[in-house]
Design a protein that fits this description.
Elements lengths: L1 E2 L5 E2 L22 E3 L5 E3 L6 E3 L5 E4 L7 E3 L2 H7 L12 H6 L2 E2 L4 H14 L8 H17 L11 H8 L2 H4 L3 H13 L11 E3 L14 E7 L2 E6 L1 H4 L2 E2 L2 H11 L8 E2 L10 E9 L2 E9 L2
Parallel strand pairs: 5-7, 12-14
Antiparallel strand pairs: 1-2, 3-4, 5-6, 7-8, 9-15, 10-11, 12-13, 14-15
Helix pairs in contact: 3-4, 3-5, 3-7, 4-7
Length: about 290
Amino acid sequence: MNENIWGEEVLDSKDPNDDNSVLYRRGVIDDSYVLQPGGKKAQAPKPKNAFYTREGVFLGYDDKNEDKLYISTKGNYDYSLGITGEPGKKADYDNLRRYSTELSMKHSDFINSASTVYGESSFWMNVTSAELQGEMRSLAYVHYNYPGEAAYGLNSTAAKSFRSTSLLKRNGTKMQMAVEAQIYVLSGGIDLSGGARYWDGSDQVGFEASNDKLRDVYKKVNGKDVYCELHMNTRGWRILTEHYNAWKAYYGDRFKAPQEKISPAGPNKGKITYQSTAVWGGTIFWKDVNIKP
C-alpha cells in the first residue's frame, strides 16, 4: 500500500493500465506543483525510481521516490513484483533493486536527454531503423560528452511530445529508440559519432560552394523565410570522402554542398574548423580542427 499524490493510501495494483499501479505511476514530474481536486496546488512528489530493459522498454517503478534510473529485465521485474511466480506473492522491491543495475543519471535528467535526442533526430524522415539507431546513439554521445553545448531540440515540438507521452506508451515506438540510445551511452557503448562535438542536417545541404553568405534562407514556413547559419562559411569544413558520399546519397538531387570549403569571412576566415567524423541517415557529425590550408 502506498500514498498517491493526494496523500490517500492506495493498493499497488499490478495492472499496467491502472493509474494507481506501481507499473503505471508517473515517474517524471515536470512541474514544481500538482493540482489537487478542487484546483488547489500541492508540492509535486519527487520522481520515482524507474526501471527499463537495455532495449529501452519501460518496465515500471519501485516503491521509492529517489529519481533513480535502473536497468533490469522483464523477468526480474515481473517476478520481484509478484506478477509471475507463486500466487499471492508480495512485491519484493529489495530483490528488484538487487538484481538490477543503477545508471549514473537521475531519471528526470535521463528523460530530458532522451527527449532532446528524439527532437534532434531524423525519426520523421525516410531513414532505416539501423541508421536511425546509429544517429540517435551518436546524438546521445555528443550530449553526454559535451553537456555544456546548447541542446536546441529540448524545446522542439517533438521533444515536448516525447515528454508528454506516458512511459508505457513510448514502448514499441521510435521514442523507445531514443530511450535505448541514452541507455547505450550510459552503459558504455561504442561512440558511433566518432568523438563528435557538433552535427548538421538538411538545412546545410542545399547551398553551393559559390555562396559566401554567412546566413541564408533554407526554407519557408507559412510563407515566411527561415534562415540558417551556413557552417561551410562561418566555420569552414572538410568532409571525408566516405562521409561525403553517404551524406550526398541520402539527399540525392537536393544536395549541393561542397566536400571542402575554407571559411571566406568572419573570425574563422582562411581556416577550416569542422572535420567530419560520421554520417548517420541525413545527419553529419563534426569534430573541431584548426586547419589553415
